[in-house]
Amino acid sequence: MVDPQKFQSDVDAASEKLRTRLGARGSTLRRQLRSAGRALPKTARQGGRRLVELQEMMAHPRLRRLVRAPDVSAAFAALNAPLDRIDVKERRKDRLLGIAGSAVGNLMLLGLLILIVLRWRGLI
Fold first, then answer.
1. CA 64 to chain centre
2. Burial classification of residue 11, based on how many CB atoms lie within 10 Å of its CB (0-12 exposed, 13-18 middle, 19 or more buried)
3. For the segment 26-54, what is each residue's pLDDT rounded down to a tens digit?
4. Could you give the CA distance from residue 66 to residue 87 in angstroms, rounded to a whole number?
5. Among 24, 53, 65, 112, which is disulfide-ready with 18 (CB 3.0 to 4.6 Å)?
6. Distance, CA of 1 to CA of 70 (rounded, Å)
């Protein structure tokens, strides 16, 4: 049998990890998993869905007896393993470099378009 307080504290820790590592918004684990979306690998999404199911079962007194410790630990492991590998600073840096690269590429296209128009008009 799984201790409900320990289970809830582990769910809260996973929820906080989703918030800090991926910036997933939401008041519940279900909403945070939906917010994280494809930023999580498939196995982590499945583990998160299983945690939500187990959380609902833990809320019901009769279904609580059906929750097994190996299922809980496997779901937590599936969700936490990819989250532990995420480096927040690296994600932020990659996002900024992506935006900068996009801006530079667009400016280069604009410059090329201006050169083509000037050449077409005979100004060059």
1. 28
2. buried
3. 999 999 999 999 999 999 999 999 999 99
4. 36
5. 24
6. 10
